[in-house]
Automatic annotation (TrEMBL):
CDD domains: VOC
Organism, scientific name: Halorubrum trapanicum
Annotated protein name in UniProt: VOC family protein
Superkingdom field: Archaea
InterPro entries with a match to the protein in the record: Glyas_Bleomycin-R_OHBP_Dase
């Protein structure tokens, strides 16, 4: 069983390109006004609408710190808070913004006992 999170967008092409090029997401399904992307089993879509949804956080989970660091490098000027440890949640994370201002988080769980798959 799986699920998909959809977001309304005013700039579908730019947003899809951002997630493909900077986070290595792949296009799973193209529909007339929606694109569904996939990142390591995480399905998320963007549908062309008159107003963009920019609430919430799209979190991309990596297997190690090096993955988070590499993602931060690919995100480049979109990074708003560089990689750092967050002791409260026992994670290593960075934050960026996509072309419409959505918050993007890249993280790894530091506790080896945490398995979300």
């Amino acid at each position: 069983m799986t699920g998909i999170v959809f977001h309304a967008t005013e700039r579908r092409d730019a947003v899809v390109e951002f997630y493909r090029d900077r986070l290595n997401a792949t296009v799973r399904i193209e529909q007339p006004d929606c694109t569904i992307l996939e990142f390591d089993g995480f399905l998320f879509g963007f549908c062309e609408r008159e107003a963009a949804d920019d609430c919430g956080i799209l979190t991309f989970v990596y297997p190690d710190r090096e993955g988070v660091d590499a993602a931060a490098d690919r995100l480049g000027d979109a990074v708003v808070k560089g990689p750092r440890e967050n002791e409260t949640y026992d994670i290593y994370q960075c934050f960026a913004e996509d072309p419409e201002g959505r918050t993007v988080e890249c993280q790894v769980f530091l506790d080896d006992g945490v398995d979300i798959k």
